[in-house]
Amino acid sequence: MEKIKIIGGDPLQGMVKVSGAKNSAVALIPATILADSPVTIEGLPNISDVRILGDLIEEIGGTFHFDGKKAVIDPSNMVPMPLPNGKVKKLRASYYLMGAMLGRFKKAVVGLPGGCHLGPRPIDQHIKGFEALGAKVTNEQGAIYLRAEELRGARIFLDVVSVGATINIMLAAVRAKGRTIIENAAKEPEIIDVATLLSNMGANIKGAGTDVIRIDGVEKLSGCRHSIIPDRIEAGTYMIAAAAMGKEVIIDNVIPQHVESLIAKLREMGVHIETSDDQILVSSNPDLKAVDVKTLVYPGFPTDLQQPFTSLLTKARGTSVVTDTIYSARFKHIDELRRMNANIKVEGCSAIITGPSQLQGAKVKASDLRAGAALVIAGLMAEGLTEIAGVEHIDRGYSNLVEKLAGIGATIWREKMTDEEIEQVKNA
Ligand code: EPU
């Protein structure tokens, strides 16, 4: 086990390059199950979620050759092997194996997914979609069993706007007989990316990126080459770090439209931002203003940036209120920020931050992926040494985070934890 150490206070300057989108990658890889020949995906992030999904692809008989950026996946010899336990429990996105295996084999057994603990994360809308397409779905001892004689297109209205359910239903529907219409679909850029891959494989999908998606089933999908979109949450994380500590930082390989809600909030705080085709320049301002933020589905402010943004707000003058309408319990980072001298209280699904506070370095623990990003940003802002445990959460979603931040001037490194430290963290 490793920890991240940061000596805060260094100004950030230079260029940081964003990797491919984690939340696309974890859907694109399962989507390849639906093809009958090799698929190449370029620009994948080198993160543990990608490597675990690669292992799962191999467990069901596929091959997964990954060089840290490009993966070549051969699904031709895959079999509908049950995956009730083991690695499926390590990540949330293993639920995409349900839709993809159901779509290809008309059956699947997949353990209930793991992932970050952000409060309740039901998958009832995924199951509603599978059932509408003709699958029988049962939950037996923590694994979901799916089986269908045949899948038939259906009209499905999502009761909750869900990224996962929208993608999972697309995966199950692309090889179903007839037309599927998903209404009240999620509109995140990752959904368009998955629809683009499936279309390149031969699927017939219209409307991805709007709230009505129409899919006409096809009999066969074939291999292709696909280039993933940049990670808007990773880009946002570095933009927030730059707003906190940057002189002038250029975020490279970003689609500025994907982070418009964050750009608007940073400008409201007094941060100077310039955008071009695929870069964003962030120049900070020592006197930042407090702002209120409410997380919403895309194109609203993303819940995945709520935690890092909270760290930044400790530096702003006045009182800010951050409300998470997507995950009511996504506030595990707050206790850790308080240890670092932040003045924050949680009321219901809101964090109330009063600033500015000069954060102080401390020993803290990341409880989930974006809490980890929030603590790294806090560590960059703090006086003295911050030690962050729970680095495995950060490794699930950020490719080379330490190297990228060191590259723009941060004093940050990784160290092995001693046995005693591991014991302390486990008991905390
Ligand atoms: N929901 C339901 N029923 C369902 C599905 C979702 O009630 O069947 C609720 C959830 O509880 C939540 C809301 O709907 O309140 C939105 O959940 P959604 O299904 O959109 O989330 P997800 O697909 O499980 C993805 C990302 C998350 C990100 C959310 C919201 C992946 C693998 N995960 O999760 O990313 O927070 O969308 O944008 O794509 C992260 O990257 O740190 C992360 C957690």
UniProtKB/TrEMBL annotation:
GO molecular function, one term: UDP-N-acetylglucosamine 1-carboxyvinyltransferase activity
Pathway per the UniProt entry: Cell wall biogenesis; peptidoglycan biosynthesis
Residues given in the record as phosphoenolpyruvate binding sites: K22, N23
Stretches assigned to the Enolpyruvate transferase domain: 8-405
Source organism superkingdom: Bacteria
EC number(s) per entry: 2.5.1.7
NCBIfam families named among the record's database cross-references: murA (TIGR01072), PRK09369.1 (NF006873), PRK12830.1 (NF009470)
InterPro entries cross-referenced by the UniProt entry: Enolpyruvate_Tfrase_dom, Enolpyruvate_Tfrase_sf, MurA_subfamily, RNA3'P_cycl/enolpyr_Trfase_a/b, UDP_GlcNAc_COvinyl_MurA
Catalytic site: C116 (proton donor)
Amino-acid positions noted as binding UDP-N-acetyl-alpha-D-glucosamine in the UniProt annotation, renumbered to this chain: R92, R121, P122, I123, D124, Q125, D304, I326
Pfam families: EPSP_synthase
Biological-process GO terms, alphabetical: cell division; cell wall organization; peptidoglycan biosynthetic process; regulation of cell shape; UDP-N-acetylgalactosamine biosynthetic process
Function per UniProt: Cell wall formation. Adds enolpyruvyl to UDP-N-acetylglucosamine.
Protein name: UDP-N-acetylglucosamine 1-carboxyvinyltransferase
Keyword field contains Endoplasmic reticulum: no
Lineage: Bacteria, Bacillati, Bacillota, Bacilli, Bacillales
GO cellular component, one term: cytoplasm
Modified residues (2-(S-cysteinyl)pyruvic acid O-phosphothioketal): C116
Cellular location(s): Cytoplasm
Catalytic reaction annotation: phosphoenolpyruvate + UDP-N-acetyl-alpha-D-glucosamine = UDP-N-acetyl-3-O-(1-carboxyvinyl)-alpha-D-glucosamine + phosphate
Family of the protein in this entry: Belongs to the EPSP synthase family. MurA subfamily.
Keyword Metal-binding recorded: no
Keywords associated with the record: Cell cycle, Cell division, Cell shape, Cell wall biogenesis/degradation, Cytoplasm, Peptidoglycan synthesis, Pyruvate, Transferase
Main location: cytoplasm
